[in-house]
Amino acid sequence: MQRSEDPSGTSYDVIVVGGGIAGVSIGYELAADQTVCLLEMESTLAYHTTGRSAAAFLETYGNEPIRSLTSASRSFMTDPPEMFEAPLASSLPLMFIAPVGRADELRKLHAEVTQLSPGVELLEGTSAERHNPLLRPGFTELAMLEPGALEIDVHELHQGYVRGLKKRGGTIVRSAAVASAHHDGSLWRLTDASGREFRAPVVVNAAGAWCDGVAALLGARAIGIQPLRRTVFMVPAPTGVQVEGLPLTMDIDDAFYFKPETGQFLCSPADETPQLPGDARADHLEIARAIDDINDATTLDVRHVRGSWAGLRNFVADRTPVVGYDPEVEGLFWYAGQGGYGIQISPAMARTGATLLRDEPLPVDVADRGLRASMIDPGRSGLRAGDGSIH
Asked: Which of 144, 157, 210, 303 is the most exposed, having the fewest neighbouring CB atoms within 10 Å of its CB?
């Protein structure tokens, strides 16, 4: 039976801090056999990062651990459990493009990703232009096409996990920023800003950009989480251009990307500007730069922007998630640093996190794709050695 929304003083098996995709997904997995209370500091879940994501499911995007987790999440995205009320995924091919002189970088990426994504193919410039007629003739030397990439319904993915967590008896408490924490030898006692107390032997730190701040309240050392701003903007399609069916197109050097979006284009400068945790705002200088780059690479001829916003992508120095028990603080379980990949890896990442919290082996399908617990462990070498800057 679901617990009260105001369970002042109630004990649980696990407290999850953070109501974005990370918190609700691992909360759902844990609630299968444990009592779970999720605390969200805002009055709305997924306000800062998840709710602003332009997420796609890209098996060739990110480093090796990210690609492993993404690949292991495909079956969930294409055939989700019954708590999801609408299809989560639709076809959206991905095309990486390399301008003249950058083809070797794309060949290197292709060699790295083909083991998990054998359907990926390299295209010469003229062939790339046939797949995406918006590419300016002669700009692209080489392209890489991932035909199985998907567009994800971020809202439905998040809300499905929320419904699933509640159905399994989980409690979600909003406007519950953690103000203090005390460990009495067996239980954590968390008090929120309103004075409500929540008790559990394990606290899952899934607080996104605020993970290091939450850790400090629990007496743990920071992992160097760095929020990075990512700007997104919308532009109209040129007259006569058929938007539907065009691929999500990304520059190999992360200078920009653009994708079709209901008769227009969603674009980004793919910026990664460090900022403090908070409400991210679009960077109009980055938008101007991206417009120049997009106009050089394509015939979109962007003249004006219809709207813009920004979100945070939260990384540690090696750009790999941090998942597991803190090596120094009892009962603190890290679930942090998922960067800009949190949506696409959420199914496999949540199953992985839940097994590690239960001190069980990694899911077989995840391990078979090359992920090892040591790759994401909070005690891994060098994680806390630096200043948290992104390289």
From this structure: 303
Dihedral (CA of 16, 158, 40, 216) sign: positive
Please calculate the CA angle 131-137-138 and round it to the nearest 5 degrees.
Answer: 110
SS3 assignment, position 390: coil
Taking a C-beta distance cutoff of 8 angstroms, is the pair 77, 232 a contact? no
Model confidence, pTM: 0.91
- Residues 4-30: pLDDT tens digits? 344 455 899 999 999 999 999 999 999
The per-residue DSSP string of 31-71 comes to TTTS-EEEE-SSSSTTTTTGGG---EE-TTSS-HHHHHHHH
Q: What is the DSSP letter of 219?
A: T
Cα angle value 32/54/290 (rounded, 5°): 155
Paired tokens of 162: 């929320």
Number of Cβ within 10 Å of residue 1's Cβ equals 3
**Edge-to-edge strands of the sheet including 171-173?**
171-173, 36-39, 14-17, 202-205, 332-336, 322-325
Q: pLDDT tens, 301-321?
A: 999 999 999 989 999 999 999
Q: How many CB atoms lie within 10 A of CB 114?
A: 15
The dihedral through the CA atoms of 22, 265, 67, 281 has a sign that is negative
Is-same-fold flag (14-52+154-224+319-376; 94-147+226-315)? no
CATH 3.30.9.10 is right for the domain spanning 94-147+226-315: yes
Per the listing, tokens 């899952």 go with 204
- Asked whether the beta carbons of 300 and 249 are under 8 A apart, the reply is no
Helix (H) or strand (E) holding 131: helix 125-131
Domain ranges of the chain: 14-52+154-224+319-376, 94-147+226-315
